[in-house]
Amino acid sequence: MGTSPLILLVEGQSIGRDSLATMLAKANYDILIVRSGTEALAWLGDHHPDLIIFDASTMRSNGVRNCRRLRRVAEHTPIIHSRSTGEEEDRAAGADVYLERPFSPRKLLNRVRALLPADTQKEEIVRYGNMTLFRTKRSVDVIGKGEFALTPKLASLLEQFIRHPNELLTRRQLMLWVWQTDFIGDTRTLDVHIRWVRECIEVDPSHPQLLTTVRGQGYLLRIEPPKTNSDKAHPVEPS
C-alpha cells in the first residue's frame, strides 16, 4: 500500500460500472473491496482502515444490521452508509454519514475528506477557540458540531476571521483578501459565503452568536481568547 488513506469498500458482486471504487481511485485513495459484511468483519480482525464505506444499495438488504456489526468491531473508524434511492435513512446502522443514491463524485469525496484524519506531516492547521481549520484539505472542525468540508473561497474567508478574532472586518477588506477585488458594488457573493460559514460554525445559523453582522460596516467573529499559548492561532499570511 502507498501512503494514501486506506478505505475499506463493502459492496455487492454485481455492482459493475456503478462501483464507488472508480470515484475513490481517481482521488488517489487506496481501496480494498470486500463483497459482504461477513467478509468485511473477517478482514477487520487483523486490519485497521482509515474509513469504511458500506454500499448497501448494491446488496439485497438495507445493510443496517451488517453496518451495525462493523461499528461494534471498528468502534473508532468512520463509516459512510450508502442506501438505495427511496430507501428510508436508518440511524440504527451506526454510521457517521448517510448518503442516498444517486450522488455526485464531489459529494462523496467531500464526505470522505471530512471524515479522514488530517496528515499532521503535511497538513497546515489553524486553531482558535472551538475551531480547527485544516488549510490543506480545506475543512473546519467545530467542537460540538463536527467537521465540514469547505470550498477554497469558504476556507479563505473563514481563515481571515480566525486570524482576526474579535476584530471588525469590513466588506472591502474581505472582498480584497478573498476575491482579490475591492469592488463592493455587489456583495451578494460575500453574503452567501457568510451564510455558509455560519452553517458550519453556529449552533443556530439564523441567529448567529459567533459571526455577527456590524450593520453598515462588515462582520466580526466573536471568540473567547485562548487560555494558553498553545491554543493561539498560528499566524498565516493571507493569500
Automatic annotation (TrEMBL):
<keyword id="KW-0902">Two-component regulatory system</keyword>
<dbReference type="GO" id="GO:0000156">
    <property type="term" value="F:phosphorelay response regulator activity"/>
</dbReference>
<feature type="domain" description="Response regulatory">
    <location>
        <begin position="6"/>
        <end position="116"/>
    </location>
</feature>
<dbReference type="InterPro" id="IPR001867">
    <property type="entry name" value="OmpR/PhoB-type_DNA-bd"/>
</dbReference>
<dbReference type="Pfam" id="PF00072">
    <property type="entry name" value="Response_reg"/>
</dbReference>
<dbReference type="GO" id="GO:0006355">
    <property type="term" value="P:regulation of DNA-templated transcription"/>
</dbReference>
<protein>
    <submittedName>
        <fullName>Response regulator</fullName>
    </submittedName>
</protein>
<feature type="DNA-binding region" description="OmpR/PhoB-type">
    <location>
        <begin position="123"/>
        <end position="223"/>
    </location>
</feature>
<keyword id="KW-0805">Transcription regulation</keyword>
<keyword id="KW-0238">DNA-binding</keyword>
<feature type="domain" description="OmpR/PhoB-type">
    <location>
        <begin position="123"/>
        <end position="223"/>
    </location>
</feature>
<feature type="modified residue" description="4-aspartylphosphate">
    <location>
        <position position="55"/>
    </location>
</feature>
<dbReference type="InterPro" id="IPR001789">
    <property type="entry name" value="Sig_transdc_resp-reg_receiver"/>
</dbReference>
<dbReference type="Pfam" id="PF00486">
    <property type="entry name" value="Trans_reg_C"/>
</dbReference>
<dbReference type="InterPro" id="IPR011006">
    <property type="entry name" value="CheY-like_superfamily"/>
</dbReference>
<dbReference type="GO" id="GO:0005829">
    <property type="term" value="C:cytosol"/>
</dbReference>
<keyword id="KW-0597">Phosphoprotein</keyword>
<keyword id="KW-0804">Transcription</keyword>
<dbReference type="GO" id="GO:0000976">
    <property type="term" value="F:transcription cis-regulatory region binding"/>
</dbReference>
<dbReference type="InterPro" id="IPR039420">
    <property type="entry name" value="WalR-like"/>
</dbReference>
<dbReference type="InterPro" id="IPR016032">
    <property type="entry name" value="Sig_transdc_resp-reg_C-effctor"/>
</dbReference>
<dbReference type="InterPro" id="IPR036388">
    <property type="entry name" value="WH-like_DNA-bd_sf"/>
</dbReference>
<dbReference type="GO" id="GO:0032993">
    <property type="term" value="C:protein-DNA complex"/>
</dbReference>
